[in-house]
Protein 1
Amino acid sequence: MISNMKKSKKYLIIILILITIIFASLSFLYVKRINNYIYITQFEPTTSRQMMGYGIKTVNGKIIIIDGGTKEDSQQLEDYIMKNGQKVDAWFITHPHSDHAGAFETISQNKNIEIDKIYMSITNKEWYIENEPSRKTDIDDFFEVVENEDIKAKIIEPQIGDIIKIDNIKAEILGIKNTEITTNAINNSSMVIKMQINNKKVLFLGDTGKESSEKLIKNFKNKLKADIVQVAHHGQNGATEELYKIVKPQICLWPTPTWLWNNDSTGVEDSGPWKTKETRKWIENLHVKQNYVAKDGTQTIKIF
């Protein structure tokens, strides 16, 4: 009888140990799954202007910023960075238009925020002013910042095909400055970045235009397929329909304010000269599952 009780007690202990091991294993897998999430935030415009800004938080809390928006948008981006550790591990500037680089110009001067690496593909200041003289003030402001010695030391100019690893994210550079293209010059010199984020491929086009779309297709047709795409030039007069057909996204990120989404220049829909409705139709024809539009506010996507 005593022997049987000892055996029962022994079996009970073994069962309890097994249950503990199984529970611990399941807990570990659950925590690992939670920790494997990566978050992409698309920021809303804080003024009536168009802008483009994205923040990416990696599994280990590293922060990647793509563009950031205008100087007026800098406060919301600064709040995001401060909330997530006060450090930007990688800042990508697609091109120096003020609706993309303005927030960077402001935040880079904030001594409470550390910026580790800055990735941009830029040519000399004179080229920008020669090809878009109306942007002279914006270009002067941009170069005043990037020619500062402290900022200059952090700038890395990637080349086509470069792979940049930040935590478990891999960013491949598919497009850099196109100084031979002088039509829509600065937009067509947008840096194009394809990221592998967990199981998703995400393509950031900046303000890629018709001419740079053709160059991308010629050089990287087999690499352009992506699950998520940032719609070029705020959704209008940017990348070509052919490029979107090749990308064939499931999700589109639109850095697009309400007036541009509705082609509204006077308070009446379709009163403007913009081609957003045309791009919207292209995307609709591709049966995209989800559209995240900046006009609807700041939104965060969880990728696992």
Note: Residues 15 and 169 are 41 Å apart (CA to CA).
Protein 2
Amino acid sequence: MDDKLQMFENRLLKVYKHKSKLAKRQHIICYRVYDHDLPEFPFCIELYEDKVYLAEYLRKHGMTDEEHEAWLETCVATICKLLNVKDENVYIKQRKRKSNRHDQYEKTDSKQEFFTVSENGLKFLINLTDYLDTGLFLDHRITRKMLMDECAEKRVLNLFAYTGSFSVYAAATAKSVTTVDLSKTYLQWAEDNFAINLFKNASKYHFIHADVKQYLKSIPPNSFDLTIIDPPTFSNSKRMKDFLDIQRDHVELLNDVLAATSDGGVIYFSTNFTKFILDAENIKASVIKDITKATTPFDFEGKLKRWCYRLVK
């Protein structure tokens, strides 16, 4: 084994030993093991129960296609050995680094192979082949639980909902849950996530296919008690009337949410724009608290590339 590969093996073994202990203690079975710890091995490695999601960030590596293929095979063998997973349970993605988490709207395959995983007693469908992301953002594990603990008997709104994982958590305790997304694919995925958790009350759970910016303008005041808003950094979907730029638009977005929120109501706002600056002065909330650190899971410490805030009307 060459020195660099030995270095990768040592590093992976060290982080896996540490994180697997923490995961076991917290009864967590889906977590991130490794994230570009060594520049020569630009991987993101996530465990979903007995399956591994392996994303290789594309970079100039100077290898021919054959050399790269052989190198990747060796890396996969090392990962399988250390994490004790079968080779056929490793799902490999190649991706460019992007600041926009909602680039997962790009489909990369069409195998339609879904697996069910669990988190805090709730079930979620994940897909490790067809999209750039899996369907469950592991970095919001704590935020989801925080939300569930706070939304009992409340009217909950989830905007830019993606596959509805926040909505599922809310449905466990909330009075009603409204899930909004511009993608019919992800909205259907969200409905499927509700179905496998046996949340089937159509009078309580609403799924709305809409442009969030337009939808917010149509909501009457005092419609919701708690809102989750986790928008893309930038979006110019053809289905939108206007493009979205989170730095430019966050004040208007949050003020529109506040207008639709009951007095004392709560908003969880998150963004993956690393250079984001919150314009707190122009946001009509009574309290704004940065909860980024409090919502950072053990497997993202020192590696988190998002902001998270809790606002009170």
Note: The chain has seven helices and 15 strands.
